[in-house]
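Field: COMPLEX_INPUT
Field: COMPONENT_COUNT = three
Field: RESIDUE_TOTAL = 1051
Field: MODE = joint
Values follow.
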Amino acid sequence: MKKRLMALMLCLALLAPMLLAGAGASGVTLRFIDVSPSPVRQEYFEKTFAKFQEETGIRVVYESVPWDDAANKLTILGTSNQLPDVITTWAGWLGQFTSAGWVIPLKDYIAGTEAEYTDTVTKLVWKGENELYGDTYTVPDGMMVKGVFVRKDWAAEEGIALDPAKGWTYSEYFDTVRKLTNPEKNRYGTSFRGARGAFDPLFVYLQTFTGGRAYADDGSALFNSPEAVAAYEVWNGLYLDGSAPKDAINWGFIEMVDNFTGGLTGTLINDSEVTATCIANMQDEQWMVMPMPASDVDGKIYNTINSPYAYSISANSQNPDAAWELIQFLTRPDNNIEYCKLTGLIPIKKDVGDDPFYGPDGYYATFMQQLNDPRLVVPCAFGPFSYTDMHQGMMHEEMQKYLLGQQDAQTALGYVAGELENRMKQFLADNPGSAVEQPKSLSD
Amino acid sequence: MTDRTKRGLSTTGRVLLLAVYLLLVVLPIYWMMATSFKTHTEIIDAQNLTYFPQEVTGENYDQLFSMYNYGSMLKNSVIISSSTAIVITLLSILGGYAFARYEFRGKGSMLLFFLLTQMIPGILVIIPLYVIFANAGLINTRFSLFVYYLVVNLPFCVITMRSFFERIPYTLEEAAFVDGCTRWQGLFRIILPIMFPGIVAVFVFAFIGSWNELIAGTIFISTSDMWTVPVGLKSLIGKYDVKWGVLMAGGVLALLPTAVMFAVMQRFVVEGLTAGAVKG
Amino acid sequence: MGWQIALYILLVVALFIVGLRLLRRHEKRHPQKIQFSRKLEPYLFVMPVFVLLLLAFGYPLINSVLMSLQNYKLIQPGNIYFNDFGNFKTLFADRDIGLIIRNSLIYVVASVGLQFLLGMTLALALRRKFRGRGLYQAIVFLPWAFSAFVVGLMFRWSFNGEYGVVNDLLMKLGLISEKIAWLGTPGLSLLVVILAMVWMGVPFFAIMYLAALQSIPEDVYEAADIDGCGAIRRYFAITLPYIKPTVIMTLLLRTIWVFNSFDLIVVITGGGPANHSQTLPSYMYTRAFSGYDFGLASALGVILMLALGIYAVFFLKVTRYNKAGDF
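Field: COMPLEX_OUTPUT
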C-alpha cells in the first residue's frame, strides 16, 4: 500500500511541473529577443507588438536575456539553430555572426528605401557594414554617439572654461582631467576603465594619430607606431599619476558610471545612452556634455557611432519576410522616435522633424552637434573578423599588466597589435577581393 | 589548572568564538538589508557612506513587485525548487538505502561515477542538454530546469542519504525482520521515522541547490514571465547602471523561504539524529 | 515530445514497481532461492538514479572528450577536424597559464581549508545545548542560503576601494590609514574571492558535522573523561574517528565544487587584474564563450576533470576510506 502511494507521489511530482509548464505557441508567430531588457523597454516593446498584431495579425513573442549573459546566450542559441527571428544585435558581435552564418543579408529588403534614412545610417553604419562584411546585416534601432560627460560644477570651481560648441583637443582634455583631480576633496578627474572594454576608447585615441585608419592596405597594423606607443603611455598616465582611483584598474561599466553619478569622478567618456542615467541621478547644474576631444594632429573629431541594439534577422528564421515587416514597423518614424526618446538614442529616419527634444537646448544637443560637425570622422573598427575573445581578455589584460608595471608600453601594445594584425592578414588572405576598412565621414 | 578553570576557559573560548562568528555573518546581511531601505541616490553617493538609511524607504520593495514582477519570479522558483527537492528526496532515499545496506557488484564504480558527474563543468552539460530540449520543444518550460536541477543535485543527495543510513545500526532492522517484517516494511516503519531529520536535511540542500542556481536559469528560459528569482535579479544589472537598492531587496526576500526552511531543518538535524537508540 | 518524456518516466516507474512485485512473488515461492532475488534488489533501488545520471551526463561527457581533440570553432562550422592535441598545446602555451593554475590551487586550498576549520570548530562549539541555540543556528547558517551572484555583487561593492564599506570600517577603526584597492591589487583580489567563498561555504560543513557529531553516544565521552582524557586528545582519539566518513566525503565533494566554481570570480573581479584572480574554470567560461572555440573549452574541461579525478582517487586512498568500511 505504501509502495503504491510512493509510486503515485513520484509520478505526480514528476508530471506536475510539466502540467504547469508555460504554454507553447502556435500560428504565425515571430520571436524577438532583447539583449538589454528593462521594465521600460519591455513595456514599450510589448505595447508596440500589440499594435503590430492589430495591424498585421502577426503575433510577436518578447524574449529577453540580461545584458551580462546576452553574448553567451546568443552563442548557444546560434549553435543549436534556435535564434529568434529578430535579434537585437550589438555591432561588436557582427564579426562572429557573419562568420558563423547566423544572420541574413538585408540589402534586398532595404532596396529602394534608402532615402528615408538619415545620412548617419546610410553613410556611416551601412557603408561600414558593407566594407567589413560585404553586405548590410542590420537596421539600426537608434544611433548612439559618444561624448564626454563632465562635472560642470567642479570645472567652475577650478576655473576651467568649457564650451561645447568650440570643443577641445585631447591635450586640453587631459589637462582638465588633471585639474579636476583633488585628493583632499576625494575627487578624481576621470572614470578610467581598466577592465573589459578598456582598450576601446584608447584605440580611438591611438587612431587620432593615424588619420582614423587601423591597418595599411596589406593588413599591417598602423596603431603601434612609436607615436602611438607614446600616446599609449600618455593615456595610461592618467591612471598612473593618480587622476583615477587605484581601484580603476579593474573597473567595468558599472563602476565607471556609478562613480560619475555618485560624485567621485569628474569626467566620463561614454555613449549618449548614459544621459538617461545622469538625468535620473543628478541635478542639471552638476553635469554637462562636451564633444569628444579633437585630434592634436589633424584637428578632426574621431568618434565611434553605432547603434546599440540593431535589428537583424536570423538565418534559421522560418519567416524572414514577416520578420522584415516587424523591423519596418519598429523603425517607422512615429515608433522610432518614441523608442529613441525612451532609450536615449538618436532617431534613424529623416522624418523626425524638428523635435525640440533633440534641439540645441535639449540634453542631447552636444551629440546632435557632433553629428553635424564637418570635423567628424568615424575611425575604423577592430576588423571584419571575430575579436570577442580578445575583447574579453587580451586587450585589457595587456593594458593591466602595463599599469601594474609588469611590462612596458611597447610590449603591451605590441601583443594586441600583433594579434589583430595576424587576424587581419588572415582575413585578407582567406577573402580575396576584400579590402581594409577606411575611415568615414558624413561629407564623403 | 583545575577542572573548573579548564571548563571555564573552554566555555569562554566557545562563547567568544560563537560571538565573533555571529558578527561576521550578520554584518554583510545587515548591510544588505540596510541598503534595501535606502534611496538610490543615497546608495550611489560616493562621498558619503551611511550605515543607517538617512531616509528609510520602502520604494525598492515596492518597485520589486510592481515594476519587476518579483511575484512571478517567486512563483516560478517555488514550483521548480519544490518539485525538484521532493523528487530528489524520494530518489535518494532509494539510492542511499541501496548503497548503505547492500554489497553488490559495481557498487564502487557506480559511486565513482557519481563523483565523476560532480567534476564535469556545468556548461559542458548545459549546452548538449539545451540542444536536446530545444528539439523536444521544452525550452522556456519549468520542466527543463526541473530536469537539470534534478540530475545536478542528485549525486550529492544520494551520497549524503547513504551516510545518514549508515549511522543507523543494522540491528534495528534485524530486530524487525525477526518479528516478520519484509524489507519494505522495515524501511518504512522503522528506519524512515528515525531518519526523518536526515531526510529533511537532504530536502533542504536540494531545495537550496535549485533555488539559487543562475546559469541554467538564464539559458533554458527565454521569456521574462518564466524567470526564476536569480535570473530576474540579474536583469537588474543593466548596461550602464545597477539598481542596487532593488537588487538587495530582492536578495533579502529570496532569503526568506530558505531561511524558514533552515530554521525548521536545524531543529530536526541537530536535536533529532540520535541513531544510538537501540532499544533492548 | 514532452508527453513522450512523461510516458518514459511513467514506464520506468512502472517497471520498477513491477520488478519489485515479481521479486516478492519469487521470494515467497522459492524461499531457498532468496539469494538471487536479494542480489537484484539493490540494482532496482539504484536504477532510477543511475539511469537518469547516465543519460544526463553520459552524452556530454563523451562529446566533450571528442570536442577537446577537435578544432571546433563555432564561427567556422564547416571546418571541424581532429587536431592532434592542438587545443591542449594552445592552452599550455598561454603566457598566463602558470599563473592561472597557481591561482586555482591557492583558491581551492585556502577556501576549502578555512571553510573546513571554521565549520568544524563551529559544529563542535554548537554541540552542547544552550539557550537561544536554535535562533543562533538559524542566523549563522544563512550564508549558504544566498545566491552566489548576490553574494558576489555584495562583496564586489563592499570591497570597492573608493566607496566600499570595508575600507570605510577599517579606517574608522583605525586599522588602516589609507584606502586599499582590494579589487585592483594582484593578490588581494584573489583574497576577496576566497573570503566570499568561505563566508558562503562554512554553513555547509557546520551542518554536516553537527549532524554527524550528534550520533556519537555520550557514554563514550563519559568513559574518556573518567580516564582523564584531555579535550584535544579526546577530539583526535574519539570524535574524529567516529565522523571520519563524513569528513572525508564532505572534504572531497566540497573541493570538487569549489575547484569547479567560477561564478563568484566572474562577478567579483572578472578574473582581474591581469588574470591575477583567474582560475581554470573562470578562464574556461570567459575564453571559451567569447572565443566561440568549443574545442578549446572542452580541452579545459577535460583537464579539469582529469585533475579532479586524480585528486579524488588519491584522496580516497590516502584517507583509507576503503578500510573505514564504507566503500
